[in-house]
Input
Amino acid sequence: MSLFSKIKKDFLAVKDRDPAFKNGIELFYAYPGIWALVNYRIANAIYKKGFKRFARFIMAVNQFITNIDIHPGATIGENVFIDHGIGVVIGETAIVGNNVTIYQGVTLGGVSLNPGKRHPTIEDDVTIGAGAKILGNITIGKGSKIGANSVVVKDVPPYSTVVGIPGKVIKRKDYSPLAHNKLPDIEKELFEYLMDRIKVLEEAVIKGESDIIQKDEEIEKKYRDYLEALKRD
Output
């Protein structure tokens, strides 16, 4: 695909995936993520031709203007949408697939000083919530959702939901683009479990409830589900 075609798809991604989009004029002043991608596309083409210093200069100017830091050596697929974008960092050996959505403050960073592959691989259709940090040479599987402010340092299977520090897989086989606000809260689930158990014990002691065994089993299932979520990597 030509450079122009890729840039055209980047512009169309805004219209398709941002409900706040009203008209094309806004693309010129309200979407720094688009201009960061345009500059990256140009710099990446120059970088591949061997003019690496000039490519780095283009992206340095881009960083000054958009506050988005993308290394020109990174690999970024088609129809990528960087929403808001302030503070996004994409490292040199990072690979970003097609139809990926990245929110502000996201880092695709490295944890090694070795010159080889040291940044993440993001497969197609992934949504990365604001402030998430994905570190190291790991793979985020297709269709996954990374919760806001999560820190991910291990591979994530396809169609997974990840939250927490360090990031844990707490749900699988559930794909809905842009639904990064609908993430399970494992701390809330534990709190609800404790409150339910106290309620059952109070009813048993004060009211003499006879079906305490059945209620206890229902609560224990919640607790087992909670523990299972913590075990998933």
Remarks:
- Helices lie at 3-17, 32-48, 52-66, 186-207, 212-231.
- The chain is about 40% helix and 15% strand.
- The CA atoms of residues 13 and 20 lie 13 Å apart.
- The mean pLDDT is 83.
